[in-house]
Amino acid sequence: MSSVPEHVFRAYDIRGLAGNELTDDFARQLGCALSEAYPEIRSLIVGRDGRESSEMLAHALTQSLLESGITVHDAGLLPTPALYFATHEFGSGSGVMVTGSHNPSEYNGFKMMMAGHTLAGEEIQNLRTHFSNDAIPQISTGPCHNIDVTKAYIRRVTSGIQLHRPMRIALDAGNGAAGPLAVATLRACGATVTPLYCEIDGTFPHHHPNPSDPANLQDLQDRVRSEQLDLGVALDGDGDRCGIVDDQGEILWPDRQLMVHARDVLQRAPGSTVVFDVKCSGLLPRVIEEAGGTAVMARTGHSFIKGRMLETGAALGGEMSGHLFFKERWYGFDDGIYAAARLLEILSTQTLRSSEVFAALPQACATPEITLPCAEDGAQHRFIEQFSERAIFPGARLTRLDGVRADFDDGFGLVRASNTTPCLVLRFEGVDENVLQRIQKSFKEQMHQTDPDLKMPF
Fold this sequence. Notes:
Layout: E1 14-17, H1 24-37, E2 43-48, H2 54-67, E3 71-77, H3 80-89, E4 95-98, E5 107-114, E6 117-118, H4 122-128, E7 144-146, H5 150-160, E8 167-172, H6 179-188, E9 191-196, H7 218-226, E10 231-235, E11 242-245, E12 251-252, H8 254-268, E13 273-277, H9 284-290, E14 294-298, H10 302-312, E15 316-318, E16 324-326, H11 336-348, H12 354-359, E17 365-366, E18 370-373, H13 379-390, E19 397-399, E20 404-408, E21 411-417, E22 423-430, H14 433-450
Parallel strand pairs: 2-3, 2-4, 3-7, 8-9, 8-10, 13-14, 13-15
Antiparallel strand pairs: 1-5, 4-5, 5-6, 10-11, 11-12, 15-16, 17-22, 18-22, 19-20, 20-21, 21-22
Helix pairs in contact: 1-2, 5-6
């Protein structure tokens, strides 16, 4: 086995520094590893985002797959959900997306779907055992076909979604891979779209393509307010996550987006399961159950959510980072463009403004995701292991599914280890500000018992 950096094999994907950790040699070894680990897969779709390193990595991966006798369908530059769509539309069920998602421009990575299943956890770790410095044995060079996914994707989305009334929106793609396709798709659904940073530029010159950070939504909020638009949509770097701001420029966090979608989906699919991650509001399960659904909590991570949806037969899933998964009327993968189209469809049936629709949702005092940087990658996991053994929250229901979540009757607190960056992720919610501060204080005190040097922002 070659000396490849272990830390690039992450919980949901492979991710690292392009040209340093992820090189063309790494991509070739990955192609060989996939062919060895999944010998039954004889056809793969390969796509890439707009980063400067993506074309090189995609080319090296493709050559390796071809030399292993695998047929490759080259989808070119496109967002991740369009690659997932292609694996369904073109019948292979398997694909690799070269993308660094929302990471800074110097990073890149690989998201992998094999036979309709997104690789995660041990499956990704197992790939490393198939890496080798030896030359790739040429079994027989497979054929390579170029495919155009764009027209098929737009046709499929618009065959099910057409707005009931005109909607005026701003769309901020953060110069990621989804910009052109998102603009074209939402316009085809009947929306009037004001593009904001929708030109693909892998250096991300305007802001980080991560809608989870409120700082990255400021330009979108300003544009929605200044032009008096109905809604603002923000996409991450590879288009599988969706951020929303209402007509007043206020952020609708993804767990509250999920409330809207759950009520809508459960009207047509009563009794269905809705999966959500550990970072979501404690009010969400109540909304799901009151709408006639079954609420299921899962680990954070797009791969884990999809896996749990398959296990439970869920009609809908989502997580606080903005990944939303529709099985009802769609394929069950995370797609920021499609999620935006579904929300616009719902709002287009209302006479109320988006801010008025969202104001009717249950709400508590809640923080956005709070990140605490750690000294090195892996330190976050060691902290959680120690904290989980020591943490005591009287009167709370403890969940150790992914970190430590303490649910009280009047709120919750969570601390978990990030699987993508060396940091701890926290979130808190309370029925009012006093409760919120009480829960934060309890976590802060106990976290300092585990690591007195932690610098808490609250």
